[in-house]
Design brief:
The protein has about 350 residues and is an alpha/beta fold. The protein folds into 2 domains: about 180 residues, Nucleotidyltransferase, domain 5 (2-Layer Sandwich); about 70 residues. The chain is built from 15 helices and 10 strands. Strand 5 and strand 6 form a beta hairpin. The N terminus and C terminus are likely disordered. GO terms for molecular function: 3'-5'-DNA exonuclease activity; metal ion binding; nucleic acid binding.
Length: about 350
Amino acid sequence: MATSSQGEGQPNIPTSTMASEQSNNSDGAAGPSGIPRAVPVPKQRPVPLTRQVVFDLGITGLENECHILRISASRLDVPVNEEYFNKYVLPKREISYWVQEIFKYSVQGDNLYRNGVQLPTLRIRQALSEFLEFLGDEPVTLIAHHSRRIDFPVLYNAMKACDMLPEFEKKATGFVDTLPLFRGVWQDFGPYRLRTLYGKLFPREEQNISNVMVLKTLVGHPDVTDEAVSKHSFDFTYVAQAAKRSFEKKSNLPSWKPLITSRFVSKSMAQRAAASGLAVHHLLLAYEWGEEQGVLDVLTEITSDGKPRVTKDKKVLEKIVSFITKGSFDDEQENESLEDEDDFYQN
């Protein structure tokens, strides 16, 4: 395999060793090659159930980096209308159009409104602190609906930005997304929107109740056994890795736009590469170190789950390498970036 140097004082690194050097870099930072380690694909591993708490977030949009507008929660082991936690948060990011239209949230100055009514709000740090206090001292399993891709990563990002991850990790030992749970329990009841399910299963009950109360009632249904809940649980590491891959994808995907628009790679393949931590400039760097084989080494690196970092499909690899070797690259597009993940909340 070819090697090259990058100026005085830079070692000649055989590209065949690039992947192993990346794998040996245990802190997740860029290795000697300047290429970051692959961000692992989260693996769902069921965990023992602890005290169960259902919760629901109101958020400014549908991306993992959105801000929290509301945190609602209730313990499963108390009556439906008792120990109900509900706090509103004044966001630092703009509320998306669809949230304004559907949920009727709006911000005017330093005030949050819903349906034109001003709401009492807290700073995000205070709201999270009170939420952690509400969870108590015993380990809990957090349960939310359609939450694996949005609610849990959003909550994780907020805790991280406010330096509360250590305490959060001690308290939240398990997580459950009730969307796949309910699909497994009530296989012929779709669609699996909360209120649709609630209306079918509890047609005579009060329908004008909060999402948390709806979810709590559904999870408390006799059909929803602890065994079923545990089957759909996952640990803190899963949430952390999902949040990290989401951040990497959003940060790195803009650099792949020229390849997508030129049809050198599909959008889904570009998303996979971006989520693993790769921007196109990393492939250019790999090409500088090891020419075509250097690019192939990075794309086909075997990760901790035994699968290639991006792909081993020869046709896809050939197209990506072809693009890199031609240098058909828009520096301005590649250099697009998001704000740092620790700046999502400014308190």
